[in-house]
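Notebook, p. 212. Picked up where the previous page left off. The plan for this session was modest: take the two constructs that came back from the sequencing core last week, fold each one, and keep the raw output in the notebook itself so nobody has to go hunting through shared drives later. Recording the first one now, exactly as returned: residue sequence, then the structure token string.
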Amino acid sequence: MQNKVVLTLEEKEIIEKLKKDPYYIKSLTNVTEDMALAVVKNNGVLIRYVENPSENVMWEALKQNPWAIEYIHNPNEDMCLYVVEKAWNSLRYIKDQSYNVIKKAIESKGWAIQFALNPDIELQKIAVEKDFDSIKFIKNPSCEIQMVAVKKDWSSIKFIDNPCDEAELESIRSNEEAMRYLHITDEKINKYIKVNVKVAKYLKEEKLKELEPIIIEEIGKEEADNQFLLDFIECDAFKFDKVRFIYKYGSMKAKTVLLDYKLGM
């Protein structure tokens, strides 16, 4: 692209025409910097019709429209940082992604991870901490990343194809509704019931009968979990008399919690 300081009359006329109709640039063969600036200040993406634009023209195009990055070959890192801060999903058009550029995009929106080339575990962590559901864009996330996501929001478990045991338990602990998104086995249910007794409402009566020894074990502990005890007392899935059940099998703490609950009704 030519760069002239003193404009000829013809160039001035062309620039004025470009200001009125920036698409006129498509018919030009020798585009000066002033012509290019007149165009990109009006419509940044028209930099696609400027051959070998100067850095100044590139910046003006990006300031007018960050999406002009799609048509800029070999933008420098500052340009890339600028556009992903303005539009996180513009990362998709950046071929040479530095760590800082990916990080900036992800810090703006976790979903940007879908456009990152080979993001490491730290970038994945930033993504799910920013937006828990961005884990759906991470292929085969590690158990560590899964745990970050489910601790942020239990419902992120539904975006994980093969969740690790720790992530499953954490999601169940937070909300029994996670049962709807998990592949259930008898062995898993035996673990789930210990961290959240309210999963019982998703089980059939015959299965609940099988779980009674586990319930007895939990309420019989001298340091039984208060929340487990209260949830058990309030859980309508168990049709038997829970007061008698606790007085028969419960520890002193379990009986105390039951008494306090009844007095507080």
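Okay, moving on. Second construct, recorded in the same format:
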Amino acid sequence: MPARPAPAVPERPRSGTAVTGERPQDAPARATPASDEPRDPAAAWQVSTARRPRARATADVNATEGSRFMGAMRRGTARGAGAAAEQLGNVTLRLQTRLKEQAAAQRRLSAIVWARRAGYVALSALLVWIVVASPVLALDPEQAEVSGFGTVVDPADVDAVIAEYEGTSLATLATSRLADALREVPGVRDATIERVWPRGLLVELTSREPVAAVPDGEGGFWLVDAEATRVGRAGEAQESLPVVTVPVGEDHVRVLESVLGVVNQLPVALRERVSDVSASTEDTVTFELRDGPRVEWGSAEDSALKAGVLQVLLDSGQARDASVIDVSAPTLPTTKK
């Protein structure tokens, strides 16, 4: 059944306007949009039904445009993210390259440092080997020069002591120990040692020269120095040494020391004329002169003065016929025929 047309609704007059069907002449006409909505519910339903396709189409258009916009936004965001990722990748790549270069430089530096350390260790080991074990600095007894043997030191004894240190590095050689060993050699009072690089030694001995011969009770003689130290042994008395006769035993050591002190104070020319020296106590030293008188010396005190007085008496001729010269009191010497 066809729908009936809706009845026309008369327009309502605007305020201030008479319902005459004509607009006032003094005021411009204002167009009032006519409402599209019919006052009738049935007509309104028809209008709403007619508008739904257009609204749906508009919504679809809006949805499409929104989808496009969102797609564009997503593509833009993706491109921005890609560009940022690319830039970040470039930075990361450069950073990795820089870190690799730094690591390589650090490895080279470490290698150089360790190479230097290894070189230092090798050089130190070489120096230690040269100093301690190398034959370059090993002592050669043939290159040892020794002086100061004196009259009683046996060179063979000295050579035997030095030979014990053959092959020892000159840098580590204990010269003080070697000097102590040389002092044990009979007749050696002291020894000084100097290194002569690379393999030699310079040894200077101070010998103990005998000043008297003491009978040993077996037909021989001990040779003693001024300190009463035995420096050798002889089968018979030497003409250049006086024979000392003193009591034997530890209780009489001071007597021997007193006698040797007197002999040591004598001038060399006078000492060579002394043949026999004897003493029973420290204050009764006497000695015989070869081709001369006996001398009463007394104690070892004022030995230098006594020696001078004795020499004057011998040179003056006053003791030419004397058998005894007494200088025990040097200020009052006496002679006896």
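Notes on construct two before I forget. Confidence is low (pLDDT under 50) at residues 1-29, 31-38.
Flagging for discussion at group meeting.
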